[in-house]
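Let us practice reading a record.
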Amino acid sequence: MSDSQIFKLKMPTIQKVQLSDADTLLALSKKTFFHFFAHLNTPANMEAYAAVTFKPEKIAAELSNLDSEFYFAMVDGEPAGYIKLNVGNAQNELKDANSLEVERIYVLEEYHGKRIGGDLLNFAIDTAKARQMDFIWLGVWEHNHKAIGFYEHNGFVKFSSHDFMLGDDRQTDIMMKKALT
């Protein structure tokens, strides 16, 4: 097989999401969340969560929060995934002044295995280092073994857990962090 026959994925560019991108972010958020979790949860709980989470006004409020930032991983001018970073009071649990939370990181299924998730995570780590944060942290569903392995491979360690409500189903997220100092 010649080089011209081998599919080569261009490196993604990381682009800050603007308020004008809210509809695109909302569609990408809902699509990726349902793809990865709908088969593991009841339709009623998925819809209950979606009714609260995937609303235009909620996404607009998140995009307007000065302590939160969203970024797209763009491939050929199209979003292949996204990440949400929180500092200060936007953090869900710790609210540590010297930490950065990765609240969400999702990549479209067709881009899995193309290192887009790794690029987004490295972007988050580089952002935290540039801001001289002590550590970066996140929560991941205890049954998402692939993601837990991905984070462990990237130097994250488990340090706690917290509840996450999906509809009326109380689930457990494993909290993981990576020291940067």
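A brief commentary: Strands lie at 13-16, 68-75, 78-86, 99-107, 135-141, 157-166, 169-179.
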